[in-house]
Specification:
The radius of gyration is 36 Å and the shape is globular. It is mainly beta and about 400 residues long. The protein contains 2 helices and 17 strands. Helix content is about 5%, strand content about 40%.
Length: about 400
């Protein structure tokens, strides 16, 4: 090749940024340094290839100078905090069955599936006072010919409740109860209540025929073997319950379904006469807005107990429980809730003991501020009167921080 041809070819390759090892993808890009052009020194040698592109030092951009990166969209339901809604639903009050024979065992309350905001604490103080009156016998009230059982007394539970929103979809909690039972003082006012509301189904169960303000819990089984809790009264710590909440369905809007699974463990911490073994419980709960001010709640689950006998009373190891509730928001800060709770058989060895229990709870909840709430309500039995509390009242305070 003639000399002038070689000079022309080398110059053309240099201008185009090409060399013997150049590639089409080596073209200059925004943010990269300039391309160097190699000019052969010795015209008789091959042209030296242009060096590869070298990335320039990164440029610091102000946040407003560029569009943020686009990521895969997170599920919508994870972004809506129902607890921060000014018309937020409060849910049913968590009321455990305090019937004297049920006190030592785990029971599943009606509960809301709504999660606490992340890293939020909820501290609660709950007080539940009630009267128990159930019996099955032949003959006069105080001189029966055959008494299968009688449960006559009063109970009280004072509970400290702590919950924590550990994650958007996960929370934990603990319930620490202190129990009391004895003769009490409520028989007279309860007789008045039943007389006043007998027309709508609140029956007195024959209470006026029996001695008042007594504590007696005794009976027999079908074979004639007797039991007595007449000396099992007083105040003591109950079983401490640990709770874990998995909020598997968070709402994407106010009217969406909400759902949670709750696992509970009751530790055998109870003192006499409330001592019992380890209890386990699991519960599925759901809720949905109905109309602008109504919310519907429902749930079902079951409990298992490691200890099936307490002071001569034998219990079912497995017990099913369910609830349904309606909440009406009177004002932004004020709700009224009506709920119904059902549970399968509790006791197995007492003669003619009822096969199920069924309650109605009516409560109201009011926000004093964005962090403090108070509530109150009462409990009545629906079925069976002989195996459920006669009347109960409860109140409490919740502080969120």
């Amino acid at each position: 090749m003639q000399l002038r041809h070689r000079i022309f070819l080398a110059t053309a390759l240099g201008v185009l940024g090409l060399g013997a090892e150049a590639h089409a993808d080596d073209a200059p890009l925004p943010g990269y340094g300039p391309t160097s052009i190699a000019i052969p020194v010795e015209l008789t040698q091959r042209a030296t290839p242009a060096p590869r592109l070298v990335r320039a030092a990164p440029v610091a951009y102000a946040p407003s100078a560029y569009a943020p990166p686009v990521y895969a969209a997170a599920p919508l339901r994870a972004g809506y905090e129902i607890q921060r809604d000014p018309w937020r639903p409060r849910g049913p009050v968590e009321v455990h069955d305090q019937w004297i024979l049920a006190q030592p065992r785990m029971t599943l309350p009606a509960v809301s599936p709504d999660a606490l905001p992340v890293r939020t604490w909820s501290l609660g103080l709950h007080v539940d006072r009630g009267s128990d009156f159930g019996w099955d016998q032949s003959g006069p009230a105080e001189s029966p010919t055959d008494r299968r059982f009688i449960v006559d007394g009063e109970h009280q539970a004072t509970e400290l409740r702590v919950r924590y929103g550990a994650h958007a979809n996960f929370g934990v909690g603990v319930r620490i109860p202190v129990y009391w039972r004895g003769g009490g003082f409520m028989d007279e006012p309860i007789d008045w209540f039943h007389e006043a509301f007998a027309g709508i189904g609140f029956l007195d169960n024959g209470r006026p025929s029996f001695d008042k303000d007594q504590y007696r819990v005794n009976g027999r089984d079908d074979a004639g073997n007797t039991f007595s809790w007449d000396d099992k009264r007083g105040t003591a710590l109950g079983n401490i319950e640990l709770e874990a909440y998995w909020h598997f369905r968070r709402p994407c809007c106010r009217s969406d379904w909400r759902g949670a699974v709750i696992a509970r463990v009751a530790l055998p911490t109870g003192g006499e006469p409330y001592h019992s073994g380890l209890d386990l419980g699991a519960q599925f709960v759901a809720a949905k807005q109905l109309g602008s001010r109504f919310d519907f709640y429902a749930g079902f689950g079951g409990t298992w107990s490691a200890e099936d006998e307490i002071n001569g009373v034998f219990y079912e190891s497995f017990r099913g429980q369910a609830f349904a509730a309606i909440e009406y928001a009177i004002l932004r800060r004020w709700s009224v809730i009506v709920e119904s709770n059902f549970a399968t058989r509790l006791v197995t060895n007492i003669a003619r003991y009822p096969a199920e229990s069924w309650y109605i709870n009516v409560s109201t909840r009011f926000d004093i501020s964005s962090c403090v709430e108070i509530y109150a309500g009462f409990t009545e039995n629906l079925a069976d009167q002989q195996g459920t509390i006669d009347f109960g009242a409860f109140a409490g305070l919740i502080w969120r921080l």
